Amino acid sequence: MRRAIILVACAAVTAALAAPAQAGPTATTSADGTAAEYVVLYKDGVSLEKAHAAIRAAGGTIVRENTDVGLATVRSTRTAFGADARRQSAVEGVARDRAVGEAPKVTHQAADKNIAVEKEGRDGGRRATTAKVKGDPLAGSQWDMQKIHATADGSYRVEPGDRGVRVGIIDTGIDGNHPDIRANFDRGLSRNFTKDIPVDANGTEVDGPCEHPSCVDPVDEDDNEHGTHVASTIASPLNGLGMAGVAPNVTLVNIRAGQDSGYFFLQPVVDALTYAADAGIDVVNMSFYTDPWLFNCPDNPADSAEYQAEQRTVIAAHERALAYAHRHGVTLVSAAGNGATDYTKTIVDASSPDYAATPGEAPYSRTIPPSCVSEPSEGRNVISVSSVGISGRKAYYSDYGNGYVDVAAPGGDVYDTADGKRDVTKGILAAYPESLARARGELNADGTPNVPYVVRDCKGTTCGYYQYLQGTSMASPHAAGVAALIVSRYGHRDPRHGGLTLSPDVVQRIMQGTATDQACPSPRDFTYTRYVLQSDGTYQKVTATHTCEGPARHNGFFGSGVVDALHAVGR
To answer: A Pfam family this protein belongs to (predicted)?
Structure first.
């Protein structure tokens, strides 16, 4: 059971998200009268009047709508609603309302898993050591910031970021009360587009019991930890406590689209992107990848006609929302993914669909050609970021592909060590909600950590908690932080929203143009060797070979190179 927290009301979003008055369905209902929810994408350019009439004709009731993109959440008791709605001339596509993205889940045990975010468990971890480096107290443990010159002697001296630059965190939430986030957190602009879901259609726990009567978490809460780590990497302030982010003076805005459990639903993701556009957000970080279909295939013969239509709807809705945000000046940054696969090659995926929208639904194996699309990382105008470890090598888990990866950034690689064994300090250190550390038993009675992946730092009576994680989820916010510095340095005043603004195309051009070129390894077929600790105390040798394609200036492992904060803002 999750912890109970006093409810804080979430402010209204925008007029574009209001649901119009609708009559209930008049068509024949299902035998048991059970209502199901769908997401319906309107034809591009169709009038709202025609779209609403089409939904009524199919027997649906609109419960939520985004008019900027033309996407609605619709409830219907008709078993044939999906098929009937697809036949309407005003409708582009229909899908069951289900998760379309997942913030990679965190493991707390020592067992090795090829997932995006990993913690070092109680066994096999090496304790953190901190070198003496200028900056906040934990700066010596931030090899990642040193690698991209986001330090007191580097970019902080030239451009620490402008308060008028807003970075939106589309994630699982932000602990806005964390002492190393609070000063840069804009509670007033923050929004939560999600509602807790106790279980899925199979009765499997998703978010568990709601913490609040409304099942809507306040905008300064993160019951997952993922979003807080991301936000801290981007903009923890230089305040003499803990660590500092890439852009320590910029403003953080929680634009929550992820469930407590880490799933992301299509409507909240679209709403988050259009809200970012309408609210004057300069940069958004998207450290999630498309689920339940890790890859969305418009016409994969392994899928049913309904599944094909659903995936086409996901692609179309995502692309409209990304285009809307880009058109309104939002720089879009996304994690490349953590499947250790080349996105430009044909692969096999056996993980989808991984969220049950209907009883009995379960993953199955599919051959995935390069024509299938992973959203949002393969979306148009999105900067896709791969992950590197402390040595500069591509992380063993990071997805890659020549023409897919735009830039690389530190995301951690706990096996990037001389002996190939795990070292927690080779991950990325950033803020961790104290409430989660306590609930998980990771702290002693006096508040000191009892696990090697959690670090505490105190300034007087104020203490902050931090944790080591790894993943492209951790690489992406380094690039987003550099994007925020670029807007701070070269942006101009935004007459509509205040603060600063800069064309996303210009931001991307500067980021890629100032990244440090990194050639493919020699030989290009690079073999990773890891020694994975087993439950009996022995080590299992694990190897995997990834092939890097392309020249030094732009290749499949590193894109245009590793981002550099100091180079991006001038020396």
So the answer is: Peptidase_S8
